[in-house]
Task: structure prediction
Amino acid sequence: MDDPLYKLEFLSLVSKIATELENHLGINDRVLAEFIISLHEQAGSLPAFQKKLDDVGAEFTAAFVENLDRLIVTLHPRKKKGTNSVDEAKHTPDTKLEQKAQMLPGLAIQDQAWEEPDYYRDEPSRRRRMHESLEEPQRRSRWDRVDGRASPPPSLPPSVPDEQPVLNKVYYGRVSGVKDFGAFVTLDGVAGRRDGLVHISALCSNTARGGNTGRISHPSDVVSRGDHVKVKVISIAGQRIGLSMRDVDQVTGRDLVPQPRGRMAMEHPPNFLTGANHEPLGGRSSVASRSVASTSSTATEERRGRGAKRLTSPERWEIKQLIASGVAKATDYPELMEEEHSTPASRLAGDDADEDIEIEVNEKEAPFLAGQTAASLELSPVKVVKAPDGSLNRAAQAGTSLAKERRELRQQEQNEEADKKSRDMSTGWLDPMAQASEKMFAQDVRGQSRIQQAQQQSEWKKHAFNKATTFGKITTLSMKEQRESLPIFKLREPLVQAIRDNQVLVIVGETGSGKTTQVTQYLAEEGFADHGKIGCTQPRRVAAVSVAKRVAEEVGCRIGQEVGYTIRFEDCTSPDTHIKYMTDGMLQRECLVDPDVKAYSVIMLDEAHERTIATDVLFGLLKKALKRRPDLKLIVTSATLDAEKFSTYFFECPIFTIPGRTYPVEILYTKEPEPDYLDASLITVMQIHLSEPPGDILVFLTGQEEIDTSCEILYERMRALGPSVPELIILPVYSALPSEMQSRIFEPAPPGARKVVLATNIAETSVTIDGVYYVVDPGFVKQNAYDARLGMDSLVVTPISQAQARQRAGRAGRTGPGKCYRLYTEAAFRNEMLPNPIPDIQRQNLASTILALKAMGINDLLHFDFMDPPPAQTMLTALESLYALSALDDEGLLTRLGRKMADFPMDPPMAKMLIASVDMGCSEEMLSIVAMLSIPNVFYRPKDKQAQADAKRAKFFQPEGDHLTLLTVYNAWVSSRFSMPWCMDNFIQGRALRRAQDVRKQLVGIMDRYHHDILSCGPNYTRIRRAICSGYFRNAAKRDPQEGYRTLAESGGNVYLHPSSSLFHRPPEYVVYHEVVMTSKEYMREVTAIEPKWLVEVAPRFFRMADQANMSKRKRQEKIQPLFDKYAKDQDDWRLSKQQRVARVLQSQTFS
Result:
């Protein structure tokens, strides 16, 4: 074309392609760039482009070709103008999805056929072979010393290619390029294409029998492109591989400078910890490394914490004087010589605890995500809140002032009451004849008064739950009569026939209609369990266990026989189990090893309207399985009326409705927005109680604290009105309330009284309460939201959706005509609420989900059949975190380490930590730590014995951190033979330890199933800390000079050590934490001290050493604040500008 603008844009494209070639290949050739662009124009698609490049001999990686394709499609002037050529029409995306796939190729990697992983079956034999091969260099070096003869050459290349190059190993290779500074060699015997550099100083002729061939003026003198050579891996730094030809006999392939790789594996961390997927994960060299490490008696291995301490200046001076006087020898003090002759580089590589290392985030993107993270920011994210500046969202962010005032008032009253009871505590300690009971701490006295107040049950609780209270519905019906009284019993025959006639069926029915407990029994009685199990998923673990126990009781068997359940870390089934209840996450894990779910004849997804992440993933997986298995039956149950979406998704399947009685509901809105929704709710309840006809009231609130506060305030206000007002029975409902107390809400109110139920969103669909005629809806819910920028989950109060508002209003029309009081304006309902709630998969962290999908061979996340696709930014963040954990390789495919991480039912960082402990020889201890992390706080602190509890707890403290403290607690409990009195004496919750013991047993079973060794490191806690660091490096933090700690990640905010931490009084410079708990501050939970250089060693994809010559980004952000001067009139008096001004004033006064 003659258009000058076209030529300019084309030259810009050529320049960009040439720059990419120089960055990747070291070749800056514009003619070659134009040739590549012409090949792209001839090709109609990315595979055709790849094939044309391969035909002309361009051995480009797939990631590099995709990068070139994206650049040409984006920058080529013809592509921009959208000409009508046939080839371009093939490449131009026809749909938004294809356009998105071109912009984000990292989310559209081609799927792989699922294969059962075979590396677990042959793992023990492979370990033996690798153990023998690792010991062979040591035997060969001993034989060389005795006989002086050359040893036979190693067998190269190995039968099984290495996932990553192994340090100090000899490989065959082919010279792929010759430069002035050396030669690039492509390694054989390594999975994929891996190139390394042989520096000119390490080159030799490819026919040399020895390593020394004299000085080489240019690499082309000894090697040329295409030559076959033998090289040894001498260094691995991230993706850069250093090779040597001088160390290898080029004729026989014998290593001229043999080094035992077993010992090197311990001295240098395993390569999967340096960002690559090294073989020790599977055990290739791990056995030898651990065997050598277990017998190592060096001082470095035996030190539990810090490295060797540097000599102080006086110590150095004294030693030098002793050496000068002849009393001591210089050879007796090698550390002195090392310090005198050390350089900054050598100190950086040494094991120095006092070294000042600056760490910063490695901003280099994953190769398969290059340029896509920034592109995802331009996409419109999923809106969790429709109108951020609306009245509803402002009220949610402001919170309820009534609850804050009540909380502060209660705290003030407790403090005043404790101060009244304070007295002189010194008498009991000074009197030698005083009894032990008289020797008390003042802190304990204050705590005792507070605990007495806390133990004093609130008046409203005494009134609602007393000795005369009966819990639950009392029935005299037999089990058979109870089953026949359920609404679903009348529809048994048509329901079973509908399941027979259809492969997929959606069942809609109210809570309490009998869907969960009866459908599985009907199917088992009709013979559906003869050719496979009947599986039923539940979104919550408590529901899975309780429903299974109820169905087992109705069937008349022991739990675990014909009827069983499976939840995380607990499997209560047997070969005789026909009906199996489980969490949706457990069925998703079963799809890892059985994508077609061949063990089941019928699968029932219960409570599908809750749309958990696992349920949404199961939708897509089971939709595929239904196409492959025509005999599989799928039932989807929902308690909401918007089941058309499920029907449309599952091939327009029929909907079976269990009819329920519904009555008209009058909707009432407020005229103006309510500033405090809690206060408005309580006022509305009192107005209904005093002015409306009989009928119970249901109030929707966000959480336990709000509900308890509301119950207390409402009781006080009703009591203030006097006895002439009709009785109002106040009943709370939330998940933490004991089940017998929750069942009180189902009892009818006595004559002349009214019942008000204050509930969370559990009462929307999971619970149906008879007798409710009035619903009070403030319009808010507390839900978990994931911030992809910060990488954190948090519970936030947000406005509900229009569908949730309609569902809440429907609760008033179950018994008769009712009213719904919406404490927001009609305009807010129409303009500030989303039509439907945001599914969990669109607002939560997806790292674990994507890891499971990758393990099933599903790499194309954009084209996976999600019912509601998650936002691209959340998926990219999850892929970045998995890449940093080495679960994904440079092309975005699952590594061996990633596949093993998917086998563990835990978050990816914890799975990585556990697998890393196998190769570091501390998996015995790590199993206990992981089990302790999976339970709530193991310590308890009675308020009347706070000082004693703190003293007992301090005995378990370890200087390395809280993870080691938990390990010490568990080991001490094991040493006490699992004694419960020991737990009481040490203020430890015995039930929590029992739960940790059960979890540990389950983890040991998983380790045995997948052939992971369980080894102990003894007193060498450094290995444990390194293993923790390898999984939770993203949670690293450095001490902030101003206050607390600052996280090292890009989102770096301030976090703080909790006063209960073992490191609170000895805060180290660098720590990693398990999670952040948001209370009065952002406190770190379970903190362990680390060395900063470990972060670079275990996660070079995420961290790097800061450039010593330049100031790091973190230091540039730090502000230097002078010490506080209490004598100064102004804290800015130290500034030069202030001093100059004062000098001028004095000078003027002197002359005047």
